[in-house]
UniProtKB/TrEMBL annotation:
Native species: Acidithiobacillus marinus
Protein name per the record: Glycosyl transferase
Lineage: Bacteria, Pseudomonadati, Pseudomonadota, Acidithiobacillia, Acidithiobacillales
Tagged with keyword Glycosyltransferase: yes
Compartments, record wording: Membrane
GO MF term (any one): ceramide glucosyltransferase activity
UniProt main location, coarse: membrane
């Protein structure tokens, strides 16, 4: 029996090692377009481009909102509007939008105060009000903490124009503040989350759809049941893509990688943020989430090493040495691909914390979001909340 157990543990360690190799292989072939490399448009300057509405759901100002929104005001695109939405007349985001309105008077930049309450998801409530103020049929939803390059819209348009596209989405690179909590979350985005999406996409059709970029036709949104269909879902972005796929349209993952500003005040805020993401993934892909421990090869093999040593002597440390070496090579690879600067110490620490958060996400039934605690049902629907929104 002991030999069988040792064999199973060794196979588990080898599977984790195999995932690491697969992630490295996928990354090797990946050709991302980063914001700082966004220097050439894929479309001719005189090409007729459809008018577009940019929807920006806002909630407060973390100090980076001006820079984030300003990047969308600098788009090399002939006709687009930016409609920002808030649900509180005293929201600090309003002053930021007004500042940009003065800086870019020629831009169709507006903000709306909406009291829509279509469900329990505060972001969807905000978007519902914003959508009512949008003029155009081509829609692009983007979170408030996103930074893009000047040709972002032009880069995305060719794939969005394909009639088989339901929703076009992008991955994002974490740019962290100097504190440890922010650097941990950015490292988890860059080294764990982003590669896992690429691996999943390589193994099958893309099912990822993220709030950093969600572009679609208004007719597609209406056909899938409108924003109201997402109003009680924690994973509103995932379900937007999923419902579009039910219409026979694809969720396309663009090569363009936007930036997200990561500013976590302390470890507790970071942990709540990461746990909400984990619980979101668990709600939409429960089986895939349970198997996701393979995407943490170093901490997983570290935990298995004592049992491997018992059965194989010092030979049981070989898998740990191999996975550690590969993890360091992989770290350099992902930092090169993303032009990121996460240190290997932060990356390894983020791996171990990430595995614990994955484990917690298996059992968590509440998430913290915008100052409130939401219950999450087995189907991913948001229940009652405590605290202010």
């Amino acid at each position: 029996m002991d030999e069988i157990l040792q064999g199973l543990l060794f196979l588990l360690a080898m599977a984790a090692l195999g995932y690491q190799l697969l992630a490295m292989w996928v990354l090797r072939a990946w050709r991302p377009v980063l914001t700082e490399a966004d220097g050439v448009s894929l479309l001719a300057a005189d090409e007729t481009l459809p008018a577009l509405s940019l929807l920006k759901p806002l909630h407060g100002d973390d100090g980076h909102l001006y820079a984030c929104l300003r990047s969308f005001c600098l788009q090399d695109y002939p006709c687009y509007e930016i409609v920002a939405g808030v649900q509180d007349a005293d929201d600090a985001a309003i002053a930021v939008v007004q500042r940009l309105q003065r800086e870019f008077p020629e831009l169709d930049l507006r903000w709306v105060l909406t009291e829509e309450k279509t469900g329990r998801n505060p972001k969807v409530n905000n978007l519902t009000g914003i959508l009512g103020a949008c003029k155009y049929d081509l829609l692009l939803i983007s979170d408030a903490d996103i930074v893009v390059g000047p040709h972002y819209l032009r880069q995305l348009l060719p794939q969005l124009a394909d009639p088989h596209t339901g929703v076009l989405t992008c991955l994002y690179r974490g740019l962290a503040e100097a504190n440890l909590a922010s650097r941990l979350l950015a490292s988890q985005i860059n080294s764990l989350f982003l590669p896992s999406v690429l691996v999943s996409t390589r193994l099958g059709p893309n099912i990822f759809c993220g709030g950093a970029t969600m572009a679609l036709q208004r007719s597609t949104l209406q056909a899938l049941g409108g924003l109201q269909r997402l109003a009680d879902q924690l994973a509103d972005d995932y379900w937007l893509g999923a419902h579009a796929r039910q219409l026979g349209k694809a969720t396309i993952l663009a090569d363009y990688v936007v930036d997200t500003r990561v500013q976590e005040a302390n470890f507790r805020v970071f942990y709540q943020h990461a746990l909400r993401w984990a619980r979101t993934t668990h709600s939409v892909q429960p089986m895939g989430y349970r198997l996701a421990f393979f995407s943490y090869p170093l901490p997983l093999v570290t935990l298995l090493t004592p049992w491997l040593l018992l059965g194989s002597g010092w030979g049981g440390i070989i898998p740990l040495g191999m996975v550690l070496l590969l993890r360091l090579v992989y770290h350099r690879q992902i930092m090169h691909k993303l032009s990121a600067t996460d240190t290997w110490v932060i990356a390894l620490l983020a791996d171990f914390v990430g595995l614990w958060i994955w484990f917690h996400g298996l059992f968590a039934r509440q998430v913290a979001w915008r100052g409130a605690q939401f219950k999450v049902g087995a189907d991913g629907r948001l229940g009652g909340q405590d605290g202010a929104r």
